[in-house]
Task: structure prediction
Amino acid sequence: MPGCSARLLILLFPVLAVSWAHAEEDDYLRALEAEAERIDAPEPPRPGRNADSGVAENRGDRAAFESELQKHKGTYSFYQTLLEKDKAEVYKAYREGASFAKIRKMIISRKLHR
Amino acid sequence: MTKRFVFPFLALLTMMIAAPHAEEGGELRVGGDSGFVPLTRDKPYIYVIHEGSSVKIQRIQDPNYELSGYFAKTIRKCPPFCIQPITPDPRVAVVGEVELFDFMENELRNGKGLLIDARTPSWYKKGTIPGSVNIPFTELSKKPNSPEMDAMLKRFGAKPRGEVGFWDSLLERWGLSDAKYKTERWDFTEAKELVLFCNGPACGQSPRAIRGLLAADYPADKIHYYRGGMQLWELWGLTTVKPREPVE
Result:
């Protein structure tokens, strides 16, 4: 009887190996997709980084920043076309207390040199 | 009268002495004092065709530029996001940014090469290297001899050999006819040089694609791995593009 189950295991091994490989592939794909989705979500504020900058903490969230930016139509239209990572970089500079002139310069720079 | 000859002579002498020192000093030759940061010492920027439009690749001209966002984070769960070996296979050459610029200006421009972003579409649509095409690693890891893999090899310029005659086969086996890029099923002589990349040194997508290509007998010396990927490309502040065409 034990010999029979060993033989069955040997026969099933290729099938099991293929299904394990597929499961591993699927897990990897799932992890990749989850990671990709995570990037699309706006970056949460990191208090540790801004602890020494009171200005940054008082400058609201990203939605507020973007609505503020909408008052400057030209700059905002440039901003809208930026890659997500560039937008995040601009927002980070804003949170760290950058002047509007610097924000505008950053947006134009990212737009023209990307 | 003497002054007319002495001044130009002294100016010429000064230039001759100063020139080698400027070279040794490692100063940027391109752009001079303008503050422009070129791609390399002798290459300010390059142009590539991306989705039918010409795109200029250059460094971001912001002295305060820092890597930010996703690629600034270097600690991720491992597995699956583990640091990759220098190459997925010892037969496959690894390239850096400078070699990639050369590839873009030569093989890519004259149609003999293909720059492959091997990431899944959800990553590709966030931004990619200009001149690249998106062929996800899942497409390049299909079984050898499967119709999907065969279609991919044809796309890269490989030609199916069909029935190889007895004498041709014999001559190839004896080394009397050139069989360097020939397998039983494929002739890879005209196959393109491929450069594959993904998210960077901790990304397993392009290594998987490379292993899939090797399993399908694609010649290893026609495959190159840009290990730095998007992370290093963005670290250097190089131009990225957002794909215009809808990705399925």
